[in-house]
Amino acid sequence: MASTTPGTLLRPLVTLAPSPPRLPNAIKAGLTVLLCLAIPYLFGRLDLGLLTVTGTFAVLYAPAAPIRRRAVTVAGIGLGLVAATALGAFTAGSQVAFAVCAVLLAMVTAGLCLAFRVGPPGSYFLVLCSGIAYLVVGEHGVEPIVVPAMTAVGAAVAWLVTMAEFLRDPRRPERRAVRRARDAVAAYASTEPGPDSRPQHRAAAHALAEAQEAVAEGMWTPTEEIIAGLAAARRDYEERAARATVHIVPGEDHAWDPRNPDAGRWLGETPETSDIDLPTASAAERTERALADDERGHIGSLRWRLANGLRWPGEPWSVAASVGVATAASIVLLTLLAGPDQPHLYWAIAFSALVLHQGGPRAARTYRALHRLTGTVAGLGLFLLVAILQPTGWWLIGLIVVLQFTIELLVTRNYGLAVTLITPLALLIASGGNVPERPLSLVGERLLDTVVGVLVALAVLWGLGRRAHHRAVRADTGRVLRELAQFARGEEQARREPTLSSTLRDLNASHSLLVADGHADSTEARTAEAVTHAGYLMLGTHGVDAVAASAPGWEELADLELPSGRRPVGADNPVDARIREHCRRTGAQFG
Question: Do 433 and 317 reside in the same domain of the chain?
Answer without folding.
Answer: yes
